[in-house]
Amino acid sequence: MRRPATSSEKVPRWLTKAYTRLVAISRQMGADVKVGDIIHSGEFQAETMCITMKRGLSPRDRINYLLHEMGHVSIYQDGLTETRYHGETDSPDIPARLSLLDEEFEAWDRGRSIAAHARIPLDQSFNDAMVHSMTEYVKWVLDTPREFGVTTIDVNDLPQEDPLKVAGDGCDEDENGKS
Ligand SMILES: [Zn+2]
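Above are the sequence and the zinc ion SMILES. Below is the predicted complex in structure-token form.
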């Protein structure tokens, strides 16, 4: 007797192929992909060059979140983790938290590009995954403890001399440097 179809049997075969293709590309990029019982949908650990995907994700979300983690690998490989971004999930203050938020956006953006290069069509679930994930990070920024909040600039700390005046008045000069 034939078993009733379960949802996993209705998954188009190409979705499984797409995931396999992404895992292969990820290994080419230098990061291994494994499955684990983790809290978040995906994690990338630079020290071990390992992406862990949460067990039990839907076929679409497996692809969506793997693309995002591959985006993190790409950012790391470009050396931007330390130079442009310096936020960690235990960052106490707003600038570091915003920096991490910025990196998260870029990881989604790079994930979208990786999908395009791998000819994997994305659907609304990719945006949904991004919105869900980014919403959590935005909440985390807003939850910054008050003592680590933004400090206002003291006008007395600003230079009193006009720092823009050093090399002439700029727009007041013509091309020959004459006023
Ligand atoms: Zn991320």
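Residues 15-145 form a domain with the Arc Repressor Mutant, subunit A fold (CATH 1.10.10).
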